[in-house]
Every structure is written in C-alpha cells, then in structure tokens.
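We emphasize that the prediction below concerns an isolated chain of 257 residues; any contacts that depend on oligomerization or on bound cofactors are therefore not represented. The input was used exactly as deposited, without trimming of termini.
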Amino acid sequence: MCVILVIMIIDSHCHIHDSHFFPENQEAVYSRARQAGTDMIVVATSESDAEAAIAFADSHEGVWAVAGVHPHDTKEGWQRVEALLKQKPSVLVGIGEIGLDYFYDNSPRDVQIRALEEQLQWAVDYDLPVSFHVREAYDDFWPLFDNFRGIRGVLHCFTDTASTLEKALERGLYIGVNGISTFTKDASQQAMFASLPLEKMLLETDAPFLTPKPFRGKINEPVYVVEVARHQAEVRNLPLGDILSQTTTNTRNLFAL
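Result of the prediction step, given as a token string:
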C-alpha cells in the first residue's frame, strides 16, 4: 500500500480578510489557497480591521486571526482591540501587526511608541505571540521590546541587516520570509535570507503585496506562498518538503495552532 503524506502549508501573514484589497474575488482567493492545501493567518492593521480579521477567520475553515494596530494607523487609536482580546475568540491567535515605522512616519513617533508599549503589555497579559512590523526603527524598537519579559513573536517582512537578524535570533524571535526573498537584487539581503536558520523561519505572502516570482505583476495571494518555499529550497539545496514541513511546524508552534 502506498501512503502519500500531504504537508499543509501555512501563510503566516496575509490580508485577504480586507475587502478593500480583495473587493470582488475574496472568496475565490480563499478557495484557491485551500484547494492547494494552504491554511492562512489573516493579520489586522487597525481597530476596525481587527474586527474584520476575526470575523473572516471565524467564518472560514483553516484561517486564524491576529489582531492589533499597525504603526501607520496608531494615530487613529488602538484601545478598542483590547475588547476583542477579552472576548478570547478561538480563532484569535496573536497580536499584530504592531511596531514602529520611521520610513513613512504616517503616525507621530511618540504615538507609535505609546501604542507599541500598550500592545506589548497586552501580549504579556493575554499570553499571545506578536507579529511585528518594524521599518528603520530598530534603535527605538529593541529597548522597548526588552522592557517586556517573555514576548515571543515574528519579525514580519524582515529585510534588515545581518546584525539586526542576530539581535532578533538572540531574543528568540522568528523571521517572516516572503516574496521579497525571491526577487531582491540586494546581495546582502540574499545572503541574509540564505543564512537564516530554517527552524526560525515562517513563510508569508503579505497578500496582496510583494508577489513572489514567477508571478510578479499579479496581485499576491496565499496560494503563492509555496513559491517562497520553493525559492528557499533551491538556494539551500534542500527538498521542498523539508522547507514546508519545518516552516509549518514553526508557525504552529509560535501561534499554538
């Protein structure tokens, strides 16, 4: 008898719950992912988006939600998210995406910092992992992070330096790898992605953004997360199954799926 082992893939970070990004084909995008054996975590960026993420996850099999307020949106408030955490919906598996973004400064930096501190406290209080968005702000981020004991999480869409990677790994953080790894021409980034310990890697799409090769030019979808894994298998000279198995295990461990 031949036994076929099917490895489920998990897109650890996408936004298909947001009808602004997928106004007409949301269900088709979801169905394509599920037919390809891909589960997904939908990640919020604002107070209202957190409600939408939880509602989408609650009504779709193989979907979980992460709720929080992105640094861009902290100027609009973040306190409403805690009411969702108190309800403890079964599909809510983390807080995010939260952090600091000094590249755009869409919210004042002092507001970003206050929001990050309060949401990190929620992570401690509710014992939830965190999906972090940090861009050109690590000098402020690390001292804030280190003020809170026991924080576990992932640096989403990581493209920073090897030095920053080392600091992240020292703190036990996972690293989110997405389509950028398949198309970046930055040699230092290529080297960083190739050297990332597989046991600390999560696969993500950030759909609808950052579409991987060979689908550049198309709107990104969770179904394309396998292309990120395929690229990692090629550059590491490992079987694709090894990449999928380990990253799925990593995601399940971090988010207690």
